[in-house]
């Protein structure tokens, strides 16, 4: 009895503790569509257009307060900005992605954000911060006990970036170790491009170790992968790194040829690559003793180096410039480059020292704060224990009286709720039986139309065709019969959409949209994501919902355009049906319209939510959200479907 009373008490209080909120369904697909357009423009070599679409998506997500969309935008935008060498902006958006991911407890996206932040710090020469963030990304990824392919792909990327970081620090052994771990995952996933991206770091490690034969072998493998997939950036990296291997082998003509091949295929939309080719050619000529030509290519590289290279790479540029100017006897310019080299080198070292001191201070302050908090908590516990001893019996008496009173109230409420639930269930069953009866009658009518009237008209058409007449009357009669046969078939298909049972919901809705398109109204159909697997009767109900809404548009809206959207998100299906017609008074239709009642009844059977918005003169929007976890196919249905497709 005691446990029962406690359960009743909690049952009563929980609704009071959780604030009620109304579900507002928004059309969020435009945010994702804008990101897709941005990525498409970037792939097509139009970074300005890509940047424009990213900003539009970001603004729209902010306006709608759509946090999932915001995370999708800033995550992709930060990666785009990094590729455009806009490191500060990329860091800003990566930190936004991290904040949203942590707030949503989305660990995989948080790890991706840490990785992007690390790339920005690495480009800015803040290698310690880069390492810390990469380690956080790897730590999160490693905690996933049963990783799927996407998790493993992300882990490979983080390990490969960590390899690159250690190579920048000239820690060749660790760079090779992490590159090989990354390559192992890529081979496990059978991802050729990922394997190539890991292979390039193995090649660099072998080059820096002096294992030039192995480095050349890996470079050629990487170049083959880039060419087979048509990836220009992979080809450029392979050619530049192979050229560096040839230079170290003193095979200078091959080195120059490889650098020039990289320049020949280099598009303007891939910043940061031209500097490596030009500076590499300059180094080759310097080692060949042709200092004048080395200077020419160095000047070309230096013009774009400060805009396109990270701080660690600029150190090497200043040193190369100093050596070239010294060889030419231009000691004043050589001194300037030497000073810049020393200044930047010292700046990075001082920055590392300051970061270390700050971290030690933070650790100390954290330890002190923990000690203070522990002492305060101990005092609070002691005071609480004393208060508990004084008030224990008073609290027990009040609690018992409260529980007894509330138990009586809760029992009555439960009885009322049971009666209400039984009544609702009975109404639901009656409604389901009514709709099943309607579907059965539709199927019977469709069969009679298809097997009866359509067959008669087809036979009449065959008889007319057998009469060898070429007069306009016969031609027109033949055409009218063809139209009649097609119209009866359309009516039959609308009454009994058998393609739902055979090809699935997505195909059925596309076919429906194709059939009803007319010259006076354009109806577009979009299906985004993967439509969840549903029971056949649930698919039929969704088809009827779309059919009812579109039929209302054709009959009453006087619209010129309409849109049907189905968006699959895990176990949710979002349906949006909109038109630009004359609209209607929703309150009047709600009370009188039979079509509205049918629509609402079908959505209710699917245990979904329906939201209809209409303004006179501004069209109508119908939003439906269905929890597909409550309407999924049973194991028996899935087995039957498998057997049917296998035979």
Automatic annotation (TrEMBL):
It holds the Pfam family HisKA_3. The chain crosses the membrane at residues 393-414. One of its GO terms (molecular function) is protein dimerization activity. GO terms for cellular component: membrane. CDD domains: HATPase_UhpB-NarQ-NarX-like (cd16917). TPR repeats lie at residues 236-269. It comes from Sphingobacterium phlebotomi. PANTHER family: NITRATE/NITRITE SENSOR PROTEIN NARX-RELATED (PTHR24421), SENSOR HISTIDINE KINASE YDFH (PTHR24421:SF55). InterPro entries: HATPase_C_sf, HATPase_dom, His_kinase_dom, Sensor_HK_TwoCompSys, Sig_transdc_His_kin_sub3_dim/P, TPR-like_helical_dom_sf, TPR_rpt. Keywords: Coiled coil, Kinase, Membrane, TPR repeat, Transferase, Transmembrane, Transmembrane helix, Two-component regulatory system. Residues 444-630 form the Histidine kinase domain. Residues 334-377, 414-448 form a coiled coil. This is Tetratricopeptide repeat protein.
């Amino acid at each position: 009895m005691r446990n029962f009373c406690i359960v009743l008490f909690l049952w009563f209080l929980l609704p009071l503790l959780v604030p009620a909120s109304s579900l507002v369904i928004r059309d969020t697909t435009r945010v994702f569509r804008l990101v897709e357009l941005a990525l498409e423009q970037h792939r097509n070599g139009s970074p300005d257009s890509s940047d424009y679409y990213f900003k539009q998506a970001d603004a729209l997500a902010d306006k709608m307060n759509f946090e999932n969309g915001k995370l999708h935008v800033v995550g992709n935008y930060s990666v785009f900005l990094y590729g455009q060498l806009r490191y500060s902006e990329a860091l800003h958006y990566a930190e936004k992605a991290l904040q949203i991911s942590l707030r949503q407890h989305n660990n995989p996206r948080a790890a991706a954000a840490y990785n992007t932040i690390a790339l920005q710090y690495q480009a800015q020469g803040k290698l310690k911060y880069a390492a810390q963030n990469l380690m956080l990304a790897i730590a999160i990824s490693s905690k996933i006990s049963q990783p799927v392919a996407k998790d493993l792909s992300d882990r490979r990327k983080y390990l490969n970036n960590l390899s690159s970081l250690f190579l920048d620090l000239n820690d060749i052994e660790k760079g090779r170790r992490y590159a090989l771990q990354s390559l192992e995952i890529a081979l496990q996933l059978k991802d050729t491009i990922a394997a190539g991206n890991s292979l390039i770091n193995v090649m660099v490690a072998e080059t820096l170790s002096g294992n030039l034969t192995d480095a050349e072998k890996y470079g050629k493998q990487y170049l083959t992968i880039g060419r087979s997939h048509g990836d220009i950036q992979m080809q450029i990296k392979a050619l530049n790194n192979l050229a560096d291997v040839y230079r170290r082998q003193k095979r200078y003509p091959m080195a120059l040829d490889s650098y020039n091949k990289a320049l020949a295929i280099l598009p303007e939309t891939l910043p940061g690559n031209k500097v490596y080719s030009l500076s590499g050619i300059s180094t080759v000529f310097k080692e060949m003793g042709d200092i004048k030509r080395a200077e020419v290519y160095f000047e070309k590289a230096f013009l774009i180096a400060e805009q396109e290279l990270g701080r660690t790479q600029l150190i090497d540029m200043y040193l190369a410039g100093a050596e070239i100017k010294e060889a030419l006897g231009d000691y004043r310019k050589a001194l300037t480059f030497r000073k810049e080299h020393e200044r930047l080198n010292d700046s990075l070292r001082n920055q590392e020292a300051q970061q270390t001191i700050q971290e030690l201070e933070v650790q100390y302050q954290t330890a002190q704060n923990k000690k203070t908090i522990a002492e305060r908590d101990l005092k609070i516990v002691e005071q609480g224990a004393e208060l508990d001893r004084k008030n224990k019996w008073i609290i027990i008496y009040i609690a018992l009286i409260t529980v007894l009173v509330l138990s009586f109230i809760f029992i009555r409420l439960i009885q009322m709720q049971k009666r209400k639930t039984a009544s609702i269930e009975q109404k639901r069953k009656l409604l389901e039986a009514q709709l099943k009866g309607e579907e059965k009658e539709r199927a019977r009518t469709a069969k009679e139309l298809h097997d009866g009237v359509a067959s008669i008209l087809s036979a009449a058409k065959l008889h007319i065709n057998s009469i060898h007449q070429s007069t306009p009357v016969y031609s027109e009669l033949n055409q009218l019969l063809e139209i009649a046969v097609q119209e009866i078939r359309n009516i039959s298909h609308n009454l009994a959409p058998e393609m739902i049972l055979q090809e699935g919901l997505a195909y059925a809705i596309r076919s429906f949209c194709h059939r009803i398109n007319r010259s006076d109204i354009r109806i577009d159909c979009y299906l985004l994501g993967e439509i969840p697997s549903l029971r056949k009767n649930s698919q039929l109900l969704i088809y009827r919902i779309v059919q009812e809404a579109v039929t209302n548009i054709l009959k009453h809206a006087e619209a010129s355009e309409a849109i049907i959207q189905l968006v699959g998100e895990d176990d949710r299906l979002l349906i949006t049906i909109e038109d630009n017609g004359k609209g209607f008074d929703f309150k009047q239709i709600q009370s009188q319209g039979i079509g509205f009642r049918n629509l609402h009844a079908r959505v209710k059977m699917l245990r979904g939510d329906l939201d209809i918005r209409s303004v006179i003169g501004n069209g109508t929007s119908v939003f439906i959200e269905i929890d597909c976890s409550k309407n999924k196919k049973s194991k028996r249905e899935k087995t039957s479907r498998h057997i049917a497709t296998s035979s």
